[in-house]
Amino acid sequence: MGVIPYNEKEVKLLARLMRAEAEGEGQLGMLMVGNVGVNRVRSDCLDFKQLANLQDMVFQSPGGFEATQKSYFYQRARQKDIDLARKTIKGGRYHPASYSLWFFKPAGSCPDQWYNQSNSGRFKSHCFFQPTQGDCPKVY
């Protein structure tokens, strides 16, 4: 059972997104991208209202993921990536992305805030940002 509703097609979709967005960051980096995706589905707040499922989250526009515009995203999901996606769907949280709804790769240091959300930390080249519990209680 997962912390959000899902089907097998969506597990593979999340696996492809995690790989396309963060393969260069290793498995932990990919898990953190999975956290952000799952958190967006859970949240029903801010820019992520009415995302009913992983499919909605992955292809949200505007506000979705840049990787969906590149051919690498459309390659078949690998089993090891599917296994990582399942970990995040089942509730695994990985700091600094545990409660994050955003991440990006800055040219330099991480800003203290991004879209008015606080920096929760950096992992390799990506900075993560989380809402307050008051703004998005379902994420927590």
Q: Explain this structure to me?
A:
It is a single chain. With 140 residues, the chain is an alpha+beta fold. The protein has four helices and four strands. The protein has a four-stranded antiparallel beta sheet, covered by helices on one side. Strand 2 (113-114) and strand 3 form a beta hairpin. Helix 1 crosses helix 2 (26-43) and helix 2 packs across helix 4 (79-89). It is globular and about 35 Å long. The two termini are 18 Å apart.
- How many H/I helices? 4
Which stretches of 5+ consecutive residues score pLDDT under 50? none
Order of helices and strands, N to C? HHHHEEEE
Rounded Rg: 14 Å
Secondary structural class:
alpha+beta
Rough shape? Answer: globular
Percentage of β-strand residues: 5-15%
Task: Give helix % range.
Answer: 25-40%
Strand order of the largest sheet: 1-4-3-2
The N- to C-terminal Cα distance equals: 18 Å
Kindly state the number of beta strands.
Answer: 4
Main pleated-sheet profile: 4 strands, antiparallel
Query: What is the arithmetic mean of pLDDT?
Result: 96
TL;DR?
By secondary structure, the chain is an alpha+beta fold.
Task: Give the SSE layout.
Blueprint: H1 8-22, H2 26-43, H3 54-58, H4 79-89, E1 102-104, E2 113-114, E3 117-123, E4 126-130
Antiparallel strand pairs: 1-4, 2-3, 3-4
Helix pairs in contact: 1-2, 1-4, 2-4
Key features?
alpha+beta, single chain, 140 residues
